[in-house]
Structures are given as C-alpha cells and as structure tokens.
Amino acid sequence: MTHNDAFRQIIAQSSFFQKCGSNFLEKCESESQLIKAPKNKIVFITGDHAQRFYVIRSGWIKVFRETEEGEQAVLYVLGEGEIIGECAIFNDNKYPYSAEATEDCELFSLSLAVLRAEIDSNHAMAIHMLNTQAKRNWVQDREIEHRTLQNAPQRIGCFILRHANPSAKGKTSIQLPFDKTLLAARLGMQPETFSRALSKLKTEANLTVKGSIIEIEDVGTLSKYCCSACSSTYPCEDLPQ
Amino acid sequence: MTHNDAFRQIIAQSSFFQKCGSNFLEKCESESQLIKAPKNKIVFITGDHAQRFYVIRSGWIKVFRETEEGEQAVLYVLGEGEIIGECAIFNDNKYPYSAEATEDCELFSLSLAVLRAEIDSNHAMAIHMLNTQAKRNWVQDREIEHRTLQNAPQRIGCFILRHANPSAKGKTSIQLPFDKTLLAARLGMQPETFSRALSKLKTEANLTVKGSIIEIEDVGTLSKYCCSACSSTYPCEDLPQ
DNA sequence: CGAGGGTTTGAAGTGCATCAAATAGTGTGG
DNA sequence: CCACACTATTTGATGCACTTCAAACCCTCG
Prior knowledge:
The structure is a homodimer.
Chain A: H1 3-12, H2 15-18, H3 22-31, E1 33-37, E2 42-44, E3 52-58, E4 61-66, E5 72-78, E6 83-84, E7 98-101, E8 105-111, H4 112-121, H5 123-149, H6 152-163, E9 172-175, H7 180-186, H8 191-205, E10 207-210, E11 213-216, H9 219-227
The structure holds a DNA duplex.
C-alpha cells in the first residue's frame, strides 16, 4: 500500500478527519509522515515543545501524566483513527500530557502549524474543532463521575457494556481491546484490584471470562449492576469506546 | 445600580466575556435577565432542553451529575464571572449536567441562540470558545490526575495552595471560599473525611485552622506535602481557582 | 433561648492498595 | 516440539484510607 492510500484509509475511519475539508486533508496528506512507534516508545512528554500531532494508524497509545516518583495517572487510551497532541495548539505549544505506545504502533505525524492555520482561516474547521473539544470535555466530566460514584467492579462492567453491541439484548460477548494491566490503569485501579473486581463481576453479574473474551449472560443484569451507580442509563449511547 | 451597570461590572471581571466583541456584548446586555436563585434552587437539570446559559453575578453554583438514588458527583463549583450551561450548544441543546445554587445567588441569564449565532458568524468568537473549551479540558484532565494520585489531605492542600497568593513564600493564609461540606464534595470525599484530612494536614504541613481561615506556616512545607503526588510543581500557575 | 445546619469526633466496616508469591501464557532458541 | 525466559495475570495475606452510621458539638439566627 502506498503512503497516501494508507493515510486515506485511516482518515476514512477517523471521526475527526471525516468532517475536515478536502483542501486541508490534502495538505495533511502531502506532509504527513508515517512513524513506527515500537512498544514502550514515548511519543512525547508533558511540556515538550509541540510541532506535530498524531493520528493513530494502528496500536494503542497511552496518554498519561506522571509524578517525579513515576506514579502515573492514565487519562486516555487511544486507538485507530484517533488523534493525540492536537490540544497543544491551545496550550502555548506544549503538550499537556505524555503519550506512550503500549504495543508496536503506527502513527501519522502531522504539522500542528498546518492545523493551526486551518483553524485560524477556516471557520468550518474551527467549529469542527470546537465540537471535538466540547465532546471530549463531557467525556471527561463523565469519567470523573464514574470514578466518584462507581466502585471497581462497576467501572469494569461499564467499560464492558460500552464495548458491547448497543442493541444487544440478553446474551452477548466482547473482547477486551488491550491487556488487563493497561485497562486497570485506564480505569484508575491496580491490576490486582482489576483481577479481583472482574471475578466479583463474574458472580454478581453472571459473566464468563476466557482470557480477553468476556461472555455476558444477560446485558440487563450487567447494566443493572453497573448503571445503578451512574447518572446515565443503559445503553449509554453518548459515551465513546 | 442599573441592570446594565450590573451586567457590565460582571462582564469586566469575566475571563470569558473579556475577549468577546462589543457587538456581541451589546446583544447579550440588551436581552440579559437578572435571575435570583435562592439557596438550593435548581437552575437546570441534566438533559433539560437548553435555551439559556448563565453568568454568575454572585454566589456559588454547584455543577453535578446525579444517579437515580440521589448520589451526586460534583464536577465544578463556579463563582462570580463564570459561565454555566453554555456547553449545551455542543450537546444537542441539552444540558450535560445539573446546576444548583449553594447559597443565594444572582445570575444573568443569556440566550444560547445568540451565543450560537455569534459563534457561527464570528470567527474570532469561535476561536475564543475553542480556547475556553480546550482549557476546561485540561483542567478536567488535571482533576482526574488529582483524584487518581493524591490522597484526601493532599487534595485539600492542593486546593488551599491554588487559593493562596502564588508569589507567597513562607507564611501566608487563605479563606475557604465556600463551606466545608461543599468543598468536600468538590474534592470527591465525604465531609467527615474532609474534616479528618484537614486535621491531618494541620499536623503534617503545619497549618492553623480557625473556621474557614487557614493559616499556612510555610508554603514550601505544604507544597512539598501535596505536590509530590502530582505531576505539576508549585506554584501550579496553569490551574484556576 | 432554642432550632437547625454545619462541623467534628468516635467506632466499626469496607474497598482498595500493597507486598509477596504462585500460576498461566507467550515467544525464543535449541 | 520442548525447555526456558519473560511477562501477564491471579491469588493470598495484610494494612491503610476512606466510608458509614451515630452522636456530640458549635455557631448562627430567629
């Protein structure tokens, strides 16, 4: 596959780029660079002077902030078609978080200056960015709600439900998108807690777990267990992932 | 004071309105309504069809989401000059959270349609909103970090430090802006936990507490205690409040 | 002075973290 | 195809942080 084909393929499935004008897409395409980020590669660090942002072609990128002692708070885990680091243009050209490849990843690197110019000159693009930022905003508001009101098993169940087919009734199943240690961090808990909390879910909400495959005996039971500690009701259509 | 004087006084100290064009401000002024929200008044509820947004003239407004059982997650507590509910224009004209007066408040009610029209027609305004949303975004990212990495006494100390004079060295003092029960909820803990955690801070970081006045014996000691569990270092200038 | 809300304190329980170790799973070279 | 190394995951034991429930205390205001 040529570089441009690869680029277009990702663009086609990226909610961010789908609404961008073809003029801007062409500019991006022509100057885009495909980056291979092997597992554990740090893409950038909080405070780095930012010149590029990234579109994920493959793999999962962990977005986090870290104390001097190395304690991490994972803010997002982003995958195919999602963008990282674009927010640096609103933060004095400094990345407000760090990003690390959690497995071998491929990223398209794009110019922040091109993005900035597009936003500044193209009103539709500014509106599009505004929608993107606003949406990310209430996703984070929800995250705070989840961490405040849901306990560990409920947060896991909530994550599972958001990955299940939203129209599923009764029996269904999902595959966890990345490994359990990373998911634990994403949900704000320790790996040991994750393991025990998932065990508890097996009993309380009637799940079967085989590796990364989760079989849900009854979506209603699971959602009742999880969504009772949340302001939203199942199916929680307005949250991604 | 006339309505318009009161309006202009608030606008003058609102970071949001300071960068808006005079044309827009006049439109807002002419159709603004001063609302008195007595203590415990619900300004709006999650999911309400939104036609107005609000600028706080006085008092503290609690922004939260709530489960069916009445458990609340407080997302923000907003005060003078801050705006609430504007984000409904990016959310299908539904408020994504509830808002309640925690004391007798005065609000200016403004038209979302006017705001929407301004954003759609005025590029500078769109860019301004973009900056506002992006900033709120990383404020929320930080909130998640704080709740993940800091324990209760550290979160309280962090809040105190953000309310202290940023150039203070050594001894200084602050007054808590609202009551301790609300502050506890704002920081994601129970009132009892707040009380005990503040006691612990008195010992660990050498504070004196008299009602809502907190005397800090040494800012360095306090920041060392709190900021060690955070990715930022004191003074944490990029966070508001 | 008494009522009521805010705040603190006490006692007990729960959930999650921590540390340690066992087990399962995966990829490697022989 | 097997043994080994390495990582991911689970399990056990224990401790701590925070919550919960209950009651006392304090402060303000009518």
